[in-house]
């Protein structure tokens, strides 16, 4: 990069601008810089074998920056999920709020890492991070301890909102620090980089508190067991679910590792109130009368391996859905998951249970600011320049339109997606030079950098090859027709001979035949089962991880 004036702020979006997920921004003053968030995203349906997607940070070397720390806004996966894969290459101190740091500590320790975790200072106080003074400003969101960041530079304050909203009656009694944002506006905000997720939605969102009464009413009206699914990180929602269960005389069981971990963390921090004796281990849930039981389960997005999917398909050991039970979806559908969730609904109805979702009752509210709240943030901090972030291109444009509608000059706004730097000077904001900001696809615990799908396919084929598994299934009967046909390409014959392919096919056939009609009748679920089976067989027996391409033909 060219040399820049010491009177210039530079912004480098590595993720989360022009897309949803893998949020990561670098702010620089001269050579000094800080990273804000280090998130992950999820692969597209066609990206077989990829578990998560994280920002490609290879350009950091070319930028020649002295990066002092990673600053975190909150503990959602799209803001911290990239740390286990990227932190080992950065080895920087990590700043965050108590719940956020507890989540990060657990996530890093699972991968065998121990980072220098540093809490932000108390309200209105600032920590020195290199030449920057950084303040965490409390905001309400769908996770505890979310904050916006006020990064003080010689040119003025940068406010990076992170995900936020203005909830007038939050569950923990800690509303967004409106007065503090106004004070920062008085000090002089040079740049507001604000969350654009709900810029397309008019008005203001309802308070999280509206969900509690609706949950209690639904639980009280059920004569069987109740299963509630929600996002595992939303401890405010978990608190209201537990409150509803206790008020209706039910005990609570938790199904899902991420839920168990998050509940344990927030309990240790004394941020979650669970009456003694209310929780029961999930393995003992089947011993409790249905009308006295409420299960909180992961899998609101239809994830095939999550607790709710296993319950819906009758594959959850010791616990079955049945007539008279109620499944409550206290969540929203992530765009693109509609078909998978519809399939999950069908499985639940086949068990005889009923479904209640946010389309029928106020069972979910968004954690992101809508148009009126976004304008309120601008009016509070009165920025010299405005930069919409966190959202697809349409969200960024709609957010800029909100800014110009309240009087921010069009010339004082900028639209710049991942890989387009932004320069901020005393009298102007503009798109700067481009830099490489691609994606890294993560397969299991390995970290592979892929520029595009063609290069990815070529490398995987060169290293481990590909196995395609073609399976014929009766569409209406949900049963296997004939033997699976496996073909290997680019795999050493010494590893996978024709005889071994027949062996895999035989074992795969036996495995699929015991899955049951519902799983085989669901083409996406059947593909995932085939992919995982062949992949695990290869890892276990030949020590390789070829690309597995499941082909399911319905007749």
Detailed description of the structure:
There is one protein chain. By secondary structure, the protein is an alpha/beta fold. The chain has three domains: 9-203 and 366-441, Ribonuclease Z/Hydroxyacylglutathione hydrolase-like (Metallo-beta-lactamase, Chain A); 208-357, Rossmann fold; 463-554, Ubiquitin-like (UB roll). Helix content is 31%, strand content 25%. An eight-stranded mixed β-sheet has the order 8-7-6-4-3-1-21-22. A six-stranded mixed β-sheet has the order 9-10-11-12-13-19. Strands 15-16-14-17-18 form a five-stranded parallel β-sheet, sandwiched between helices. Helix 6 packs parallel to helix 7 (235-247).
Mean pLDDT: 91
Rg calculated over all Cα atoms: 25 Å
What kind of sheet is the major sheet?
8 strands, mixed
> What separation lies between the terminal Cα atoms?
58 Å
Number of helices: 16
By CATH's scheme, which homologous superfamily of the largest domain applies? Answer: Ribonuclease Z/Hydroxyacylglutathione hydrolase-like
The largest beta-sheet arranges its strands as 8-7-6-4-3-1-21-22
Number of separate domains: 3
The helix content, as a percent range, equals 25-40%
- Structural class based on helices, strands and sheet pairing: alpha/beta
Which percent range describes the beta-strand content? Answer: 25-35%
Counting DSSP E segments of at least 2 residues, the number of strands comes to 28
Outline the low-pLDDT stretches.
Answer: none
Report the principal-axis shape.
globular
Q: What would the CATH topology of the largest domain be?
A: Metallo-beta-lactamase, Chain A
Main CATH class of the largest domain: Alpha Beta
The CATH architecture assignment of the largest domain turns out to be: 4-Layer Sandwich
